[in-house]
Design brief:
about 450 residues, alpha/beta, TIM Barrel, seven-stranded mixed beta sheet, seven-stranded parallel beta sheet, Metal-dep_hydrolase_composite, Amidohydro-rel, zinc, dihydropyrimidinase
Length: about 450
């Protein structure tokens, strides 16, 4: 058992206020937040002068140790959570993707992911479970996995990756109806997989084989159309909807439209989409371009990243993730000669907290309280773990970051903690650094 800990002289920041206070932690729980806590001799002490004391980040969108396309992502649950903690994130929500097409059930897939994660993670984690096929037993399995014994409260649906992960509209609608009955959340990857497949065939036939083909096969209208369709289906099923990795203006507009009609829809842009644009896909260096291949792709409109941050500021979008799904240069190179074979995925779990501060707070678009909201508090509320997570308050878990808003760091693969030989944010200078991460 660790000794009590006192954090002195810092500024506590929650989503609804910031104030000077000391914080006392015992047995992994915050037991006091007040001025002038007197440290006792048996207590550890952290001096947080000129620092912010904020809730540990919650990354609601990661893919650690994920098998796909004959490969496995490079960040397993150990390296991935080490990177998370190094960057100020104290909880991840990963995606369990049962191999339905080879007969694996939801429960079997859940147990497989737990077997990988439990011995390795160095921070808290949760699981969303993907439904990639509807079967007669699916409803019963959904009911079981959302029981208190297992605790899953969200399901993932892919509207892309035809032939592997993609669900048909009728399958997704039936599963959304079950989500509504179970009071579970539907999380949807919004693209039009059927159209993408046809565009891929056409582009390859015309000799377009490089990473630029990836973005050309996935025009922004495709994401917007699928986002609108997911919102309509969720509304018909009376099911709350969470749109993962909102990458484009059109997708964000669809979310805003349906929220204005009274639908419960949450939008999650990711760190990459808030900092980068799709010009990388046209780089003369094939490998450089391939490193940025992800789905949906980065927007080719250079004004999109700032707009997405402004929508977060306005409450039209709601929280930030990363879609951390890392493939190294060898794996990316498997797609030379055929862009459809480039494994889709990028890093982000370590750098999200700094990138969002840089592009949001340092740029003047959001304040520190909104920063806490979009990096932890809103995720905690959506996934029903607030205020245990996402808040600095008595009774909350001691998932705490000592954040220096005046420090500057330059992101580099030479210094990151990912099991990866590149970093998509390479060279970006960030004002704001998580100096100490406490993960209870």
């Amino acid at each position: 058992m660790s000794p009590p800990l006192v954090i002195k002289n810092g500024t506590v920041v929650n989503e609804d206020g910031m104030f000077k206070a000391d914080v006392l932690v015992k047995n992994g729980v915050i037991v006091e937040v007040s001025a002038n806590i007197i440290p006792l001799p048996d207590m550890e002490l952290i001096d947080a002068s000129d620092r912010l004391v904020i809730p540990g980040g919650i990354d609601p969108h990661t893919h650690m140790q994920m098998p796909y396309m004959g490969e496995v992502t490079k960040d397993d649950f150990l390296k991935g959570t080490e990177a998370a903690v190094a960057g100020g994130t104290t909880m991840i929500i990963d995606f369990c993707c049962p191999d339905h097409r080879n007969g694996e059930s939801l429960m079997s897939g859940y147990n497989r992911w737990r077997g990988w994660a439990d011995p390795k993670v160095c921070c808290d984690y949760g699981l969303s479970v993907a439904i990639t096929q509807w079967r007669p037993e699916t409803a019963e399995q959904m009911a079981l996995i959302t029981s208190p014994e297992y605790g899953v409260n969200s399901f993932k649906f892919y509207m892309a990756y035809e032939g592997t992960l993609m669900v048909r509209d009728d399958e997704m609608y039936r599963a959304m109806q079950e989500c509504a009955k179970l009071r579970a959340l539907a999380r949807v990857h919004c693209e039009n997989g059927a159209v993408i497949k046809e565009k891929e065939i056409d582009l390859l036939a015309k000799g377009v084989t490089g990473p630029e083909g990836h973005t050309q096969s996935r025009p922004e209208e495709i994401e917007a159309e699928a986002t609108n369709r997911a919102c309509v289906l969720a509304a018909q099923a009376n099911c709350p909807l969470y749109v993962v990795h909102v990458m484009t203006k059109g997708a964000a507009a669809a979310i805003s439209h349906h929220r204005a009609q009274g639908s419960i829809v949450f939008g999650e842009p990711i760190a990459a989409g808030l900092a980068l644009d799709g010009s990388h896909y046209y780089d003369d260096d094939w490998l450089h371009a391939a490193r940025y291949v992800m789905s949906p792709p980065l927007s080719r409109d250079p004004t999109t990243p700032e707009l997405l941050m402004k929508l977060l500021a306005a409450g039209e979008l709601h929280l930030t993730g990363t879609d951390n799904c890392t493939y190294d240069c060898r794996q990316k190179s498997l797609g030379k000669g055929n862009f459809t074979k480039i494994p889709n995925g990028i890093n982000g779990v370590e750098d999200r907290m700094s990138v969002v501060w840089e592009k949001g707070v340092h740029s003047g678009i959001i304040d520190p309280m909104r920063y806490v909201s979009i990096t932890s508090a809103t995720a905690a509320k959506i996934f029903n773990i607030y205020p245990k997570k996402g808040r600095i308050a008595v009774g909350s878990d001691a998932d705490i970051v000592i954040f220096n808003p005046n420090a500057i760091r330059t992101i580099s693969a030479d210094t990151h903690h990912h099991n990866l030989d590149f970093n998509i944010f390479e060279g970006i200078q960030c004002h704001g650094v998580a100096e100490i991460t406490i993960s209870s």
